[in-house]
């Protein structure tokens, strides 16, 4: 018996995204929601809905007992965690499987390994992925730290093994600061993540962020679906993503993609994953692997034609990969703008009631969003309210269409980052694809 009813353990646009894939496969959906999300679009569209707690995520979307009970009561045979919340919680994945419910995600052991940055880096190295030069594992002794830093050369970056969201990192320019910064990084990591373990790696001055989408069947077969360039970031948060990367040749894509696919095959990886690299002067350096669906997955869907959520559900159901590596083609160009309910200049969150909403439309324009006129954006969660994904036969055409789509899109009642995207798409460096992970913040400083 295949999967017939999926519990969606998430909210917002990704909950809707999962609902859509499920319904297209003839699978029923069960939405779980906090009291703040009772009127959300995915709750309205799902076949069944269960309220699992008050607004605070800890008591609702992170509430394992409530979610498992909802799955039992509503007789779900699978759970999709989306991204964020419990999606990379190995313990949760184990609990789901222990209840004989299918976990639409990677094997819990792989989630655990990749969630520990020191173990992830070690594993990645063993699997043949190129690493940022640095310590082999955790470093606690300042003398050992000095030795490693001298070997790889300053500047170096001290990172927390349990870090995440760009937190718990210190850049060290010279030897005299190393001991102090190692101590600081350790105690800050302890306070933030409950784990003082740190490691050291070479600090790259001006890299791009390029990540590869991978998929495995859990039985030793794996494919890659090309890369996404996510270099336009503010405070380590991606703002705009594109596929393919403007700087990667077909040969390079094939070479790196196959290194990633082979690594996943060797590991016996199951489901969707993203291997993140920094790229500088033609070299790739592994930084981390995300064992889940990414926010920016639609740009990959646009250039490959593969529905990644459908693929996740198929794999969880024990089916083989629907496409072989040599059947995959990368066509055209796609760009995603993350649209947040926030001030486009100060970035202050702007929750509240949407009085009018008109999404963009037309050929090759996709809007993933749970917005509707009259909806109140709650203040408790992430500020992303929509993703605008546009496809074109080439990058230039894609950008022209994206500008047109941004002109059409109207959200009234709250402030949004639409004007920021419009401004970005007038910058020569963005038009030329000439940007690194530092570009956006540097540009924001010179704005006005
Ligand atoms: P997190 O899990 O906290 O997001 P990552 O390891 O993915 O941590 O790093 C987050 C960001 O920090 C990267 O996108 C990059 O901007 C910066 N960074 C991480 N490692 C390095 C490095 N070795 N050199 C330069 N920048 C780095």
Please give the alpha-carbon distance between the first and last residues.
60 Å
Number of helices: 15
Estimated radius of gyration = 22 Å
Number of strands: 20
Outline the biggest β-sheet.
Answer: 8 strands, antiparallel
Bound molecules: adenosine-5'-diphosphate
Helix coverage percent of residues? 25-40%
Shape: globular
Helix/strand structural class:
alpha+beta
| Low-confidence sequence ranges | none
Strand order of the largest sheet: 13-12-9-10-11-14-19-17
Average pLDDT figure: 97
Report the portion of residues in β strands. Answer: 25-35%
Features:
globular; 448 residues; five-stranded parallel beta sheet; binds adenosine-5'-diphosphate; alpha+beta
Description of the structure:
The protein is of the alpha+beta class and 448 residues long. Helices cover 34% and strands 26% of the residues. It is built from 15 helices and 20 strands. It has helices at residues 12-24, 41-45, 64-73, 90-98, 108-115, 117-126, 142-152, 175-193, 250-267, 297-304, 308-316, 395-408, 418-424, 428-431, 439-446, and strands spanning 5-8, 28-34, 48-53, 78-80, 102-103, 156-160, 169-172, 198-202, 208-217, 222-234, 237-243, 270-280, 283-290, 333-340, 352-353, 356-358, 365-369, 376-377, 384-392, 410-412. The chain has an eight-stranded antiparallel sheet, sandwiched between helices. A five-stranded parallel sheet has the order 3-2-1-4-5. The protein has a three-stranded antiparallel sheet with strand order 7-6-8, covered by helices on one side. Helix 7 (142-152) packs across helix 8. It is globular, with a radius of gyration of 22 Å. The N and C termini lie far apart (60 Å). The relative contact order is 0.12. The mean pLDDT is 97. It binds adenosine-5'-diphosphate. Adenosine-5'-diphosphate binds next to strand 8, strand 12 and strand 13.
């Amino acid at each position: 018996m295949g999967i017939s009813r999926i519990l969606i353990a998430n909210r917002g646009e990704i909950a809707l995204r999962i609902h859509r894939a499920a319904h297209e496969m003839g699978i029923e959906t069960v939405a779980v929601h906090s009291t703040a999300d009772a009127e959300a679009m995915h709750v309205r569209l799902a076949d069944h809905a269960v309220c699992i707690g008050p607004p605070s995520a800890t008591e609702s979307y992170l509430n394992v007992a409530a979610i498992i009970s909802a799955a039992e009561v509503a007789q779900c045979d699978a759970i999709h965690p989306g991204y964020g919340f419990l999606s990379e919680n190995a313990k949760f994945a184990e609990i789901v499987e222990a209840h004989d419910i299918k976990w639409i995600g990677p094997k819990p052991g792989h989630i655990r390994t990749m969630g520990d940055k020191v173990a992830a880096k070690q594993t990645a190295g063993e699997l043949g992925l190129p690493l940022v030069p640095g310590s082999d594992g955790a470093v606690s002794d300042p003398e050992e730290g000095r030795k490693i830093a001298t070997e790889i050369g300053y500047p170096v970056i001290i990172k927390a093994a349990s870090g995440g969201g760009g937190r718990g990192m210190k850049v060290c320019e010279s030897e005299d600061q190393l001991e102090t910064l190692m101590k600081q990084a350790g105690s800050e990591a302890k306070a933030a993540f409950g784990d003082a373990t740190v490691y050291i790696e070479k600090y790259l001055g001006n890299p791009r962020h390029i990540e590869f989408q991978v998929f495995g069947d859990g039985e030793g077969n794996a494919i890659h679906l090309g890369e996404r360039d996510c270099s336009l970031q503010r405070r380590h948060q991606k703002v705009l993503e594109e596929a393919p990367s403007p700087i990667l040749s077909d040969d390079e894509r094939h070479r790196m993609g196959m290194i990633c696919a082979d690594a996943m095959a060797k590991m016996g990886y199951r489901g969707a994953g993203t291997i993140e690299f920094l790229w500088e002067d033609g070299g790739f350096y592994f930084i981390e692997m995300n064992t889940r669906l990414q926010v920016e997955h639609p740009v990959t869907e646009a250039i490959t034609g593969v529905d990644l959520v459908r693929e996740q559900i198929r794999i969880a159901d024990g089916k083989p990969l629907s496409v072989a590596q040599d059947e995959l083609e990368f066509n055209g160009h796609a760009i995603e703008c993350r649209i947040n309910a926030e001030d486009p200049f100060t970035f202050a969150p702007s929750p509240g009631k949407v009085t009018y909403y008109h999404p963009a439309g037309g050929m090759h324009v996709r809007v993933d969003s749970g917005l509707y006129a009259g909806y109140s954006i709650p203040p408790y969660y992430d500020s992303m309210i929509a993703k605008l994904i546009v496809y074109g036969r080439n990058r230039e055409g894609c950008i022209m269409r994206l500008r047109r789509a941004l002109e059409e899109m109207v959200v009234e009642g709250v402030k949004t980052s639409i004007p920021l995207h419009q401004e970005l798409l007038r910058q020569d460096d963005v038009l030329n694809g000439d940007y690194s992970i530092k570009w956006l913040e540097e540009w924001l400083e010179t704005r006005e």
